[in-house]
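Posting here for the record, re: iron/sulfur cluster.
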Amino acid sequence: MTELIRIENLKKYFPVRKGLLRRVTAHVKAVDGVSFSIGEKETIGLVGESGCGKTTAGRTILKLLDPTGGRIVYRENDITPLNSGQMRPLRKKLQIIFQDPYASLNPRMTVGKIIREGLDIHNIGEKKKRDGMVAEVLEKVGLPRNILDRYPHEFSGGQRQRVGIARALVLNPEFIVCDEAISALDVSIQAQIINLLADLKEEFGIAYLFIAHDLSVVEHISDRVAVMYLGKIVELAKTSELFSNPLHPYTRALLSSVPKPDPTIEHERIVLQGDVPSPIAPPEGCSFHPRCPLAVKGLCDTVEPLTVESDDHQFACHVVEEELGCETENPA
Ligand code: SF4
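Prediction output follows.
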């Protein structure tokens, strides 16, 4: 598979300021050394609890936020140092669909203007033909062509999210970050939007970074799944492999909380104790150790586990590494 985007040791820290002089007293380490690549037409699911840094990671990859460290490589070009003006020609290729279909659409603009705005900014297509392009893309996302003059408040949540998808799609992107794009929708509408995104991926060859807090949501659409905890990727594998053979204790806990369709099948529920620690002062050693049922005293609370790869399955855990007899290495 041809590589589209590569993220190397990506970091995004937010300063915490205090006092009259607003001095920086600490940093929130929202993304702390994340590395993975996304191939053309590939979907990577990025999951983790609220506050684990997945949304910040998605926005930093698109350079909507400036990275604190690391590199973002798009089609073999390092885009990390580019400023907003230099990023502009790339924006049409790198798009985002936001979580909240209510807040992400300007209530004072018609649906037609919202979707057409990107075409005008990037000067795509002949001016006279742009409304036709908008109508065409509306049809692709399952909305009627005759709603160009209507306003977002006239539509349901699912329909608004389709407008959000159309806004991204009209620019013919190669890569879309779906930032909790279905989390605010009813369950039945969630399935429709996932199917729509999967169909659009097939038709237009788009790659997605599909961000969600629920593992069951990403299973259907993702080729690979990355699990994030406190700013770091703790496990990354092909979707079928991750669901059938989860290695990291955090992934196992997340999977155990996914409801099973057959209530007669018993499964053990792993309940994690406590909350996600503060990213301002993450715990020493493995950041998951205060909540981990397998934590080894004197090791997990002092030494940070490195990312290890075994048969295309990456994870960062001392105990699993020992069980599998892996040799430690840090894959790029
Ligand atoms: Fe648990 Fe230790 Fe593995 Fe971290 S390194 S996940 S604390 S067993």
